[in-house]
Design a protein that fits this description.
heterodimer, A: alpha/beta, 10-stranded mixed β-sheet, 6 helices, globular, B: alpha+beta, Rossmann fold, Jelly Rolls, 4 helices, 28% strand, disordered N terminus
Chain lengths: 255, 198
């Protein structure tokens, strides 16, 4: 079984596009995490999902209180706004359209969520993107309405062969597919120590870990019984292998 | 924040409440503050469970209410949990797991934006919508296992013996139509509905 290596370098300042990972950023309609500018700098394509454009317009200037708001909005202009367009304000749409942002109106398609549309766009259509090692960062993916959050988590399961990271101010989540051994390299300046492994979609008959305060050894996990929450990372590397897809979650530090 | 909570509950209920605090993740200065406030409130009991690191705070609280809370008619008990969602996802998942662990007790997880509760597979469910305070956005979430068959009435996108599972169909961004929803499923489901802002 192949090893899949994970590292939250997208949370570290700096924009080394020399990294082998190609990042894309999708902004959803929740409060922008305070580290959104760091994600933005790592990303080679930036997509707003419908009302995510309102968030960018309203809240990015708040992260740069000493800068002129219009300047900030010009600096942080999305490449594309996509979705069913029922949340974006007209003034926001006009502002970004005038700056050259492409708008793709998918209001005819009521069967898929905005995030699903954006992930499909990045995977299939985003031009000039090296997708051999793609990682899609999703800001504002958690909190708010639980059905939205569940729908966003479901996108991780639907697109299980693409690295997708759901982010909020407090934590991040991504899928650990059962097809791989996983090595998670902890960036302790920005994440941890609180973490968990969550068998959302089905019972996990057997999971084995190293590097956690409460490691699992061929342990069964399922809702109604053991789910690994309020765990703690010890040191710099976690390993996980499971008979089922698991969600990995780790807290993001406040400073 | 704790003080404001104390005051608002006292005002609302008009009688002394039993508060139970678990200092599992409580720093020492917060704990000291809580103890000082608690000692001023007539009838308040403080239970320190900080020695028990194996169960979550919510699980301890639910077990307390179920087993120990005196003078409580538990024949039709419903436990409301404020601040149960948002924040760290592992906490949220742990709180959801409490719904599954205590599947025979009505437990409602609440946030500013929505509420969640379990619909056990053992029953047909009728959900009466309080449309002045909740809806219309809703969902049915098969957490923990595939739901082979779910049938609903009263939703914009009803299900008819429909399979739901993560990786495929999960009923999110659904809408309530009218005043009564019915749900029956081969698996336990989470029901979630938005809470109105006004």
């Amino acid at each position: 079984m192949d090893v899949m290596i994970h590292s939250s370098t997208f949370l570290l300042p700096g924009n080394d596009h020399s990294s082998s990972v190609t990042y894309a950023l999708v902004v959803l309609n929740q409060r922008l995490p305070r580290f959104t500018p760091i994600l933005w700098n790592h990303a080679q394509v930036r997509v707003c999902a419908d009302g995510g454009a309102n968030r960018l317009f309203d809240e990015m200037p708040l992260l740069f209180p000493r800068d002129d708001a219009i300047d900030v909005r010009h600096r942080y202009k999305p490449d594309i706004i996509k979705g069913d367009m029922d949340s974006i304000r007209t003034e926001v749409l006009d502002f970004y359209t005038n700056l050259g942002t492409k708008v793709v109106d998918e209001s005819h398609d009521q069967d898929t969520t905005d995030l699903r549309k954006c992930v499909a766009y990045v995977r299939d259509l985003a031009p000039n993107l090296d997708k051999s090692n793609l990682c899609i960062l999703v800001a504002g993916a958690l909190g708010g309405r639980f059905d939205h959050e569940a729908g966003n988590i479901n996108v991780l399961y639907r697109f299980s062969t693409i690295r997708i990271i759901l982010l909020s101010d407090d934590c991040l989540i991504y899928l650990l597919p059962r097809t791989h051994h996983h090595e998670i390299h902890i960036q302790s300046s920005v994440e941890g120590p609180h973490c968990g492994l969550i068998p959302i979609g089905m019972t996990s008959v057997s999971t084995t870990t190293t590097g956690l305060q409460w490691d699992l050894t061929n342990t069964e996990m399922r809702f109604g019984d053991l789910v690994s929450t309020s765990n703690l990372v010890q040191g710099e590397k976690i390993t996980v292998q499971s008979s089922s897809d698991l969600l990995w979650t780790i807290s993001i530090k406040k400073t | 924040m704790i003080e404001a909570l104390f005051e608002s509950f006292q005002l609302f209920s008009g009688h002394a409440l039993t508060w139970v605090f678990f200092s599992y993740e409580c720093d020492q200065s917060s704990l000291a503050q809580i103890l000082v406030l608690a000692s001023k409130m007539q009838g308040t009991k403080v239970v320190d469970e900080s020695h028990d690191q194996d169960t979550t705070d919510l699980r301890k609280c639910v077990a307390y209410v179920r087993d120990l809370a005196p003078n409580l008619d538990k024949s039709n008990l419903c436990i409301l949990v404020a601040g149960a969602l948002g924040g760290r996802f592992d906490h949220e998942a742990g709180n959801i797991n409490v719904l599954y662990r205590f599947s025979t007790i009505r437990i409602i997880l609440l946030s500013d934006d929505c509420l969640i509760y379990l619909l056990p597979r053992t029953h047909h469910h009728e959900i009466h919508i309080q449309s002045s305070v909740e809806g219309p956005h809703c969902g049915l979430i098969p957490i923990g296992m595939t739901s082979v068959s779910t049938t609903t009435t009263g939703l914009q996108w009803d299900l008819t013996n429909t399979e739901m599972r993560f990786g495929d169909l999960v009923s999110t961004s659904n809408l309530v139509q009218g005043e009564k929803i019915t749900v029956q499923s081969s698996s336990d489901l989470l029901w979630t509905i938005s809470i109105k802002k006004t």
